[in-house]
Every structure is written in structure tokens, then in C-alpha cells.
Specification:
The protein is an alpha/beta fold. The chain is built from 22 helices and 6 strands.
Length: 517
């Protein structure tokens, strides 16, 4: 066989569907090079370049196409992908680079007793398709971006300064917000073994959204926890809590929660703050976390939202440069102080009894108090790495020195309850994001989540029933919405196609309505 024929056999033409094409366009627009995208997808550079050149037509094709159906897998592959979603959510919260997992598939086959001969390989191309189906578009494997991108950070700082200068923004108008996970009831393993035998490790966590501006002003924290109605909140209105309390079954930020916070918490708070004669023009800096909507600039005319370049959070994100570490250290200090006070009073508790009685409401109060402890000097000093102007306004703040002082105080408090701790122990607690979940952990966590959802459904939700009046109102609202789209859409064929799909989807509800009628 001639070499050219052999080469032709090796290079089989690959068909790239519309969904993958738009994903390639988005990756390129997000700053990834043609070579990088080519290597990641296993597609030739010429094909990637052709798709990018044709990006306008591809985007128009997406706008005019009907929703794409996703093929569902079955057996252990489907179960593995469900567990992989849980694992990825855990890694996202910890801001840990992702790595491929292949052994999980075999573990599932053994544990669940699947009679399944199909083999599975967690290739990069499979992982990219899985991310798209699971809506994890912004995630990268650990081998792709192992270190912070300092080359991308330098031109961004220059461009950021240009935007601030052109917009004539004041320090009071420039804000940064960032999420951090908090294992709010965590203590070191060796302390549990020495002083609290029988006390089970408590891995419950929550997410805090902390925010402030260049002048050092801090806004009320947002707290996301997994449960809405807790016993600790009995006879307590959430409106008077010292935090904005929101819930999510995974206790982490989502696009819906962020948009709700942005419109109903952030904008009203900064509007009130800026009534002191400063124009209501806000410049907000965010990272590219999956829970941050890219369309925030469209929600308010007085808001300018700028996103950090990919993989630069650790070197540019202001809140990460001292505010969040200081907050966590203060939280740990306050918790130990309360433990000492509880054990030293007349009818003192044991350390184990204190931790068992430490509830989420105590945690919320501590979070609010310790956020207040973060000084204006700290909130001002965290902007040094990202801003070229207002540098002369920065007051002295040394991150490492401040954290060392707090750690020393915690060590002294620990000694009062006969705990041997040093500064390294404190650092590990402040930076703790928990261990990576094992395959057994993932399978157990899935079982626990299902059981918890069933329990909450049984206890908190009233039985669901179809009510004719409410069904009629729902049909009416859907029809009103479709009429609005019909007035806006110049493409009659497209609207007819979408309307037909929606009416087909609603057929089951209409049948129920007719039966009741």
C-alpha cells in the first residue's frame, strides 16, 4: 500500500457537531490558543482555525437551532458520571485542579454487581464531552493549568488601570467579591483522638461570599447553607440575621443565587452606601468561577463588571490576598475563645460537649463578628497587586505578620484547654479544604444525599397535588410568554418550531387538567 493511502487511513475525517463547535469558539474567546484547543480536543489546528474563522455563522446557527438532545448512558457508566459530578462539585468548592478518575468505573461494577462487559477509558475527549453535558464548562484538568498564569496577569493589570482611568472611578466605587468554603465545625484529628474520644469528625461546610471596596468598606456577608428550615432558626426571622442567608443542597454558589444576590443585596447596599455625594457608578471585579454569570453587565446600567483572566485568581484576586485568610483565622480564634469560656464557667462543659452544642446559628453570629474584625487596613492593602493607581492610599498591611499574630493568640487559647498546638496547626486549619473524596466516600455521599432529600421531602414539603385553578394560571402565563417571543422573533419558522416543542412537552399536564375538568 502506498504511503499516501496509509496516511489517509490514519487520518480519518472527524465530524464536529454544532455543540462542540460553539464550545471551541467559547474556549478561544476565553483566551485559549488554537494550539491548546487542538491538543485538548485531539483535533487538527487547521480544523480549529476554520471553526474560529466561521464563528459568526456558527453563533447564528446556534440561535436558530432547536435545543439539542443529550444521549443518556446506562448501567455503571451512568452511575459513575453521577458520582463524578459530586466529586467535581467538591473539587470546585476547594478550588483544587481536576484530575481524571478511571478506577471509579470498576469499583461501581464490583459494588453494584453489574453484569457489564463494556470497558471504559477516561480520555480527555470523553472528559470534555462530559463537562459540557454536566454544565462544567469552565473547568480544566490539573495538567492543563498547573500554575497561575502570570503572563496573562500583567496585561490585565494594565487594561484594568485604563478602564478605571477612563471611567474616572473613585476607590469607594471599586469592589471585589469572592466565595470561600468554611468547615464551620472542624477541629484537628489528633485533638479529637486525644481530648474528645468518640467524637465523630464533622465535615459539614458552608459557603461565604465576602465583599468590600478599595477604601476598606465591607458589606454584609452572604452565607449559603444546605438547609432552609432548621431547628436553630425556630422563632427567628432570617431577615434579621447578620448575614444574607441563602440555601442550596450543595451549599455552594450557583448562577441563580449569584444573580439574586447581585440584584437584591449588592445593588441596594452599594446604592445606600454611595448616597454620600459619590456618583452611583460601580466597578466590580470577579473571577471566572462557574457560579458567576457572564451577563451581569446587562443587568444594571450603572454597573461595570470585569472578570479576571482564567487561572489568575491566586495572584490577582484581592480578597485572596489577605481578607479571606484573616477572616478564617479570626473565626477560628473566636471559636476557640468561646470554647475556653464554656469550659471555665461554674458549670463548665467539656470540650466535646461544647462542640456538640455548637450550632449553625452560633456559626452565623461568629461569621458576622469576625468579618467585622477584618480591619480597614487589611481591606485596603489587599488591592496592591492588582491596582496601579490609589497605591499611595494603601495603608500598611502585612498579610503574613497579621496572620502570625492571630495564630499566636489561638495557640495561647488552646493551651488554656490543655491542647498542644503550634502555628503550623493553625495554618492547616485556616487553609483546610478537606481531603479529596475517595470512591467509597462518593458512593456513600450519594446514598446520604438521596436519604437526606427523601427525609426533607417527607418532613418539610406538603404533598403535591395538581390544582385546576393554578394549572390554568400556569398555562396562561406560558401562553403570554410565547406571545412575547412571537412578537420579537422575525423568524416565523423558528418560533413555530419552538412553540410546537413546548406545546408537545406540556401535553401531559394538559391531559391531567382535562381529566380533572
Amino acid at each position: 500500500m502506498c504511503p499516501s493511502c496509509q496516511d489517509g487511513e490514519k487520518r480519518k475525517r472527524k465530524t464536529i457537531d454544532l455543540e462542540h463547535k460553539i464550545a471551541i469558539v467559547r474556549q478561544y474567546e476565553g483566551g485559549q490558543t488554537v494550539s491548546f484547543v487542538s491538543r485538548k480536543l485531539g483535533t487538527s489546528k487547521s480544523s480549529i482555525s476554520t471553526i474560529i474563522k466561521d464563528s459568526d455563522r456558527i453563533c447564528e446557527a446556534v440561535k436558530g437551532s432547536a435545543p439539542m438532545k443529550i444521549k443518556q448512558r446506562a448501567g455503571p457508566i451512568l452511575e459513575m458520571e453521577k458520582l463524578l459530578v459530586i466529586w467535581m462539585e467538591d473539587q470546585i468548592e476547594k478550588r483544587t485542579p481536576l484530575s481524571l478518575m478511571t478506577i471509579l468505573f470498576e469499583d461501581l461494577k464490583k459494588k453494584e454487581g453489574y453484569d457489564y462487559d463494556q470497558t471504559f477509558t477516561a480520555s480527555h475527549s470523553w472528559f470534555n464531552r462530559f463537562k459540557m453535558c454536566a454544565n462544567f464548562h469552565n473547568l480544566k484538568l490539573s495538567g492543563e493549568t498547573a500554575s497561575a498564569d502570570s503572563k496573562a496577569a500583567e496585561p490585565f493589570i494594565v487594561e484594568l488601570d485604563k478602564l478605571i482611568k477612563e471611567g474616572n472611578y473613585f476607590p469607594e466605587q471599586i469592589f471585589n467579591v469572592d466565595e470561600t468554603g468554611l468547615f464551620w465545625k472542624n477541629i484537628p484529628t489528633y485533638i479529637r483522638k486525644q481530648k474528645m474520644p468518640g467524637y465523630k469528625a464533622f465535615k459539614d461546610h458552608l459557603t461565604d461570599l465576602l465583599r468590600g471596596n478599595v477604601s476598606g468598606y465591607k458589606l454584609k456577608p452572604l452565607l449559603i447553607y444546605r438547609s432552609e428550615n432548621l431547628r436553630a432558626f425556630k422563632n427567628i426571622s432570617k431577615a434579621i440575621l447578620p448575614v444574607h442567608y441563602h440555601t442550596n443542597k450543595k451549599a455552594w454558589m450557583t448562577l441563580v443565587l449569584f444573580e439574586d444576590w447581585f440584584m437584591n443585596c449588592f445593588i441596594p447596599e452599594v446604592s445606600y452606601f454611595l448616597e454620600k455625594g459619590i456618583p452611583f457608578q460601580i466597578f466590580l471585579i470577579l473571577d471566572n468561577a462557574p457560579g458567576h454569570p457572564q451577563y451581569l453587565n446587562d443587568l444594571h446600567s450603572n454597573m461595570k463588571v470585569v472578570f479576571l483572566p482564567p487561572n489568575t485568581t491566586s495572584i490577582l484576586q484581592p480578597m485572596d490576598q489577605g481578607a479571606i485568610p484573616a477572616f478564617k483565622a479570626y473565626y477560628l480564634h473566636n471559636t476557640f475563645a468561646k470554647a475556653v469560656a464554656a469550659t471555665e464557667c461554674e458549670n463548665g462543659k467539656t470540650l466535646c460537649e461544647f462542640w456538640k452544642d455548637y450550632k449553625i446559628l452560633h456559626c452565623i453570629r461568629n461569621i458576622a463578628a469576625e468579618w467585622e474584625e477584618v480591619t480597614p487596613q487589611c481591606m485596603n492593602g489587599i488591592w496592591k497587586k492588582i491596582l496601579k493607581r490609589f497605591v499611595n492610599c494603601f495603608r500598611g498591611f502585612e498579610k503574613e505578620k497579621a496572620l502570625e499574630d492571630i495564630s499566636n493568640n489561638i495557640v495561647q487559647l488552646a493551651k488554656q484547654v490543655d491542647l498542644e498546638m503550634d502555628n503550623e496547626d493553625i495554618r492547616q486549619l485556616v487553609e483546610d479544604v478537606g481531603e479529596e473524596l475517595s470512591n467509597e466516600d462518593l458512593m456513600q455521599l450519594k446514598v446520604e444525599r438521596v436519604a437526606e432529600e427523601e427525609r426533607q421531602t417527607a418532613q418539610e414539603e406538603a404533598p403535591k397535588n395538581f390544582v385546576m385553578k393554578e394549572m390554568a394560571a400556569a398555562f396562561s402565563k406560558i401562553n403570554e410568554g410565547m406571545q412575547m417571543f412571537e412578537k420579537m422573533d422575525p423568524n416565523v419558522a423558528r418560533f413555530s418550531k419552538v412553540d410546537h416543542l413546548i406545546q408537545d412537552a406540556l401535553a401531559c399536564y394538559k391531559e391531567i387538567y382535562n381529566e380533572k375538568k
